[in-house]
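Exercise: predict the fold of this chain.
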Amino acid sequence: MSEMKDAMKAKDEAGLRGLRAIKAEIIKAKTDPGAGGKITEEGELKLLQKLVKQRRDSLDIFVQQHREDLAQKEREEITIIEKFLPQQLSEEEIRTAVQQIISGMGAVSPADMGKIMGAANKQLAGKADGKTIATVVKELLNR
């Protein structure tokens, strides 16, 4: 809320849009059936990752359609939302972590992708994009 107040005072439209989107999603998650009016930190991270993913998907579409005005808005919101996520791992760091998981589980073929993805997503939650994790797992298992 203090971030929203600061954005309002600074007349930061992009910041305000991003913060309002976060607030709306948190309120929605808290009022979902079974949530009990609370959301865990892990739930918040998943929610923020979902918001970033939605905006990246929209950004790709806007870039393809040559709508730079809309693409710029998405970029701004992504920047704001990412401030609330933990530092994202580089692809090399993801590769190292996934390699350790594969070695630890004894996976040898692409048929093991499901169990590796489950462990990797759990271990790297909030620190890496699921799409990147999947790409790295697929690449390492197909060697």
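Check your answer against the key: The helical segments are 2-9, 13-31, 41-64, 68-82, 91-105, 113-123, 130-141.
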